[in-house]
Design goal:
The complex is a heterodimer. Helix content of chain A is about 75%, strand content about 5%. The two termini of chain B are about 15 Å apart. Classes of the chains: A mainly alpha, B mainly alpha.
């Protein structure tokens, strides 16, 4: 019964926040804070008590750490089916943690309509947790689309208009249309899968465990896989579909950026790992070279564009595109090591990107601009903030000792045996990573100061947030074993699906 | 044909509705009183709605050559009566401020509803025509009801002229079909035409002309030109009726015709319908993009929505009939909700409706609950989960996938992506900072009035069906068409 509560808690908390606004603006914040802390606590409790050896594997009925099933729409054989394994749990922990942080980082930034803001924030998180738990494809799609609406409001109502005059509504609408249209393509693919299965077996079902057994003709499998891949590729984002991301990030309020980079992008990687690969292993194996090349393009394209930005938030946004390229390569490599690296990289990127966006937000609160041309020489003007930024920039470029290093290293190491050339090229992308990270630090914090006037230093809330993130990243960097243990079984399942398909593909050639 | 009690019971919803119209007319002649007329109308409509229950006991039953009362008909009768009831309730508050005679509007609405009931039970082209005219003619009057408003009058005349032209096409088409087949009943036509093997030139022409007539009533591209103007000009509750009850009835009869005369389906007609569907989806959505008038925007969006519905009509097998039922139900709910908000905003009548988008700027900060309703309706029109519209769209996509209509699905995806843009535009307008201009708002206590309660019920139902559609789906599984 705890699984539906994990989803319900944010939704109920959001409604409470909304109604609590009439009693003052700090009550919604407190309620939102408590909601997310409760969510995080539940996640941690599950982590300590759960058995994460249980995860779906090919060839057998999927087993889960926790499962919840309730008939929902009988007509189509749709169940309210939730289940959790190691991967979902880690994602939920990340969601809870970043939820707490996004409440904290909007504490002073958001001053208008506090209640409604937190309603939207909580509902995004609730929707995301739904995505991480849903095992019925209809339910998955339901949550996948549902989280768009509050995100849209978050960007459209509390965002900042950009320097070049692109409005926040433009960015929010672009975000919505990209994800909505690609989502519909996924819906068509889901229904295609369901009807193929229906024609074969006579059972109309949207259930994951039953659809895993669906026998698909190769051409159909490939097309359906593409339908899923496009939806995930837009959200990840993979390069030709990425153009909503910088706009949405730049215009979103800090909490919106944190959630977007930290969690929403991860739903796409999660979707690939949970649905696209196990449901269509053969087509995925066939598609892997293309996906990995797209990942490569993403790494370099993201890095180059990040380097060229003057808006600091857009820079971080493009760096996400670059990092997601590594994740895409890792996912399609079909090696256990690389897949484990993907998990670490997802968590580490979630933490470091969130931290960078929080820092950008704090910078914006002081400077009222995100334009790096207006900055420069800030090292001497703000206490602590530049140094902490430097740390996270280093984390983002994958310095050993941070979680990002572990993630990228595992991905590259794991993929090397199968696809050495792609890995060799991808590795040189790390150099670009250091270029844009350091350029960001250089442009914003070093060089001649524009004014001598000192800016407000970081208060304890701001310091607490960033330092705790820093500690977590270092922990992830020096002792990632607990995380790897938690996700091992799930990743082993994904890996066996894919490697079987790879062997078959190799044999067929 | 011998009429027995059973036949009268089957016809009870129609009979009650007609009796109500007579009663209302007499009551108006006796004493002009707004509240009394309204109460009479509502009572009559509720009784007609209740009369469906005994009628269901005797279905399916053919009543004369013209009508057939089956579960399919009963479902759509119910839908039409509910939509009419909501429109009447909305009209009540709206008409409070109307300076002219207020009572006749109710009379016209009941008559039109009776037309709708005849239409959805028609199994004969004559029944179809009678129903269609009984539905359309009162609507001319309703659209032009606020006749001292130039736009309303213009809309009324426009609708009348074009609608009459549409009817003429329809009638000519029927005549041509009759010339070839020698019968006017749907099933008879189907049997005769399929027996003939290849269709004659005359039949092709006849089908084409009938299609023009019906496409006009459904405002499908390229016969859509009247829609935005009429929607804009008509008083808001009338526009709600036009968008819901009237279109539902026409679509239901089209579905029955298409299903019972399978010879008409297939071949070039399917290709033509596909073209019309794609054009309606794309053009409807594209033209809605830049509208700054909410009623016009809803008009264009309804063109697109009927394009989506055509996808299911073209598939015409498997889930299609059920999907159309689901989609029409969700569409009716949502449109009533959206027009309901416009009506309440324009209540009481004050010369022109409050339909410019800028008048809705920042509504959230003044009327949060009303805004929540409109937001929900916009999301439902866009087909976002948690709302009924999503279930409808899900069904249409399911039907498309089931029947491998990839081109139509492609345009549906593109169309919804475009559609999202303007629905979001309306939505976000509601939440922006309000300008300091003079504005007209819904009365402070709108939520306590009948119209407001009705609107809240619509919103509640939209949400409920979005989360738990099973009851509706179960109901619809029993509403298949039965051929007699």
């Amino acid at each position: 019964m705890i699984l539906p509560w994990l989803i319900l808690i944010p939704f109920i908390g959001g409604l409470l926040c909304w109604q609590a606004e009439r009693f003052g603006s700090s009550l919604p914040r407190t309620i939102a804070m408590l909601t997310m802390l409760l969510e995080l606590a539940l996640g941690l409790w599950l982590w300590f008590t759960g058995d994460f050896q249980l995860a779906p594997h090919p060839g057998a009925d999927p087993v889960w750490t926790l499962e919840f099933k309730q008939v929902w729409i009988e007509r189509f054989g749709i169940n309210f089916h939730l289940a959790m394994d190691g991967l979902s749990l880690l994602m939920i922990l990340l969601t809870g943690l970043l939820g707490v942080l996004s409440v904290l980082c909007s504490w002073s930034e958001i001053q208008k309509n506090v209640g409604f803001f937190h309603l939207n924030l909580m509902w995004i998180l609730g929707g995301v947790i739904g995505v991480f738990l849903a095992l019925d494809l209809f339910l998955f799609f339901f949550f996948w689309e549902m989280m768009l609406v509050p995100m849209y409001f978050l960007i459209a109502l509390w965002g900042h208009s950009s320097i070049e005059g692109k409005s926040r509504i433009y960015a929010a609408t672009k975000f919505f249309i990209y994800t909505q249209a690609s989502g519909l393509i996924m819906l068509v693919a889901i229904l295609g899968l369901v009807f193929v299965n229906f024609n074969n077996t006579g059972v109309l079902t949207f259930d994951y465990s039953l659809l895993l057994k669906a026998e698909l003709p190769p051409a159909t499998e490939y097309i359906l896989m593409l339908g899923f891949f496009i939806a995930f590729a837009v959200k990840l984002p993979v390069v030709p579909f990425h153009s909503w991301l910088p706009d949405a990030h730049a215009q979103a309020p800090t909490a919106g950026s944190v959630d977007l980079a930290g969690i929403l992008l991860k739903t796409a990687a999660y979707g690939l790992l949970r649905f696209a690969l196990p449901l269509f292993p053969n087509a995925s194996a066939e598609f892997a070279p293309i996906a990995m090349s797209l990942g490569l393009i993403g790494i370099f394209y993201g890095a180059l564009l990040a380097f060229a930005q003057t808006d600091i938030k857009r820079l971080v946004a493009y760096s996400s595109v670059s990092h997601m390229g590594f994740i895409l390569i890792g996912i399609y490599s079909g090696s256990q090591q690389a897949l484990q690296g993907v998990v670490i990289q997802m968590l580490a990127h979630g933490l470091s990107a969130a931290a960078l966006f929080i820092l950008c937000g704090q910078l914006y609160e002081r400077m009222h601009t995100r334009d790096m041309r207006e900055m420069g020489g800030l090292w001497s003007r703000i206490a602590y903030l530049p140094a902490i930024s430097l740390f996270f920039a280093a984390a983002s470029l994958g310095l050993p000792g941070t979680g990002n290093f572990v993630g990228e290293f595992l991905i590259l190491l794991g993929s090397f045996t199968a696809t050495p050339w792609i890995v060799v090229i991808a590795t040189s992308g790390l150099v670009f990573g250091s270029v844009y990270s350091l350029v960001m630090i250089h442009r914003a914090y070093f060089g001649p100061a524009k004014s001598e006037q000192a800016l407000r230093g970081m208060n304890s809330r701001e310091l607490g947030m960033t330092l705790s993130l820093a500690i977590l990243i270092v922990l992830l960097g020096v002792y990632p074993q607990p995380i790897l243990d938690t996700s091992a079984a799930t990743m082993h399942g994904v890996q066996s699906w894919l490697s079987t398909a790879f062997t078959q593909l190799a044999a067929a050639r | 044909m011998q009429l027995t009690t059973e036949h009268f019971i089957a016809l009870l919803p129609l009979l009650v509705t007609c009796a109500t119209s007579v009663l209302v007319m007499l009551a108006i002649a006796w004493r002009r009183n707004h509240a009394q007329t309204y109460l009479l109308t509502v009572t009559g409509l509720v009784l007609a709605l209740l009369a469906i229950i005994p009628a269901l006991k005797v279905t399916p039953l053919a009543v004369t050559e013209l009508l057939q009362v089956d579960n399919f008909a009963c479902f759509y009768i119910g839908l039409i009566l509910v939509a009419t009831l909501v429109c009447v309730t909305l009209a009540h508050a709206y008409m409070e401020g109307y300076p002219g005679n207020r009572e006749e509007l109710y009379l016209l609405i009941i008559l039109a509803a009776a037309g709708g009931i005849v239409l959805v039970s028609a199994r004969h082209l004559a029944g179809l025509f009678i129903g269609l005219e009984l539905l359309s003619v009162p609507v001319y009057g309703m659209v032009a009801y606020a006749f001292f408003n130039k736009r309303s009058l213009e809309a009324g005349i426009k609708y009348m002229v074009l609608s009459a032209a549409g009817s003429a096409f329809l009638l000519f088409g029927m005549a041509l079909l009759y010339a070839d087949a020698g019968t006017l009943s749907f099933a008879g036509l189907g049997a005769k035409l399929s027996a003939d093997g290849s269709l004659s030139q005359l039949v092709h022409l006849g089908i084409g002309m009938m299609l023009i007539g019906l496409a006009f009533k459904l405002s499908l591209v390229p016969f859509h030109l009247w829609t935005p103007d009429v929607y804009e000009g008509a008083p808001a509750p009338v526009a709600a009726f036009l968008a819901t009850a009237s279109k539902v009835a026409v679509f239901a009869v089209l579905l029955r015709l298409y299903q019972l005369s399978p010879a008409m389906a297939g071949g070039w007609l399917n290709d033509l319908l596909s073209l019309i569907a794609i054009a309606s989806i794309l053009l409807g959505n594209l033209l809605a993009l830049m509208q700054s008038n909410l009623k016009r925007l809803l008009g264009y969006s309804s063109i697109a929505h009927f394009g989506y519905l055509l996808v299911a009509l073209i598939a015409s097998k498997g889930l299609a009939v059920e999907a159309i039922g689901v989609y029409l139900t969700t569409y009716v709910l949502t449109s009533l909700g959206a027009f309901g908000v416009v009506t309440l905003m324009s209540t009481p009548y004050h010369g022109r409706d409050c339909d410019a988008l800028y008048e809705y700027r920042g509504l959230f900060w003044r009327r949060p609950n009303l805004t929540a309703v409109l937001t929900l309706m916009m999301l439902s029109l866009a087909g976002i989960p948690l709302t009924a519209g999503f279930i409808g769209k899900f069904y249409i996509v399911a039907v498309g996938v089931e029947s491998h209509l990839w081109w139509l699905l492609g345009s549906l995806i593109i169309g919804s992506a475009i559609g999202v843009f303007y629905y979001l535009r309306v939505m976000v307008t509601l939440f922006l900072v309000a300008p300091g201009l003079h504005r007209h708002d819904a009365p402070e206590n709108w939520g306590q009035r009948t119209g407001g309660i009705m609107l809240m019920a619509m919103a509640g139902l939209t949400l409920f069906l979005g989360v738990y559609p099973q009851p509706l789906l179960e109901l619809l599984q029993h509403t298949g068409l039965t051929a007699l």
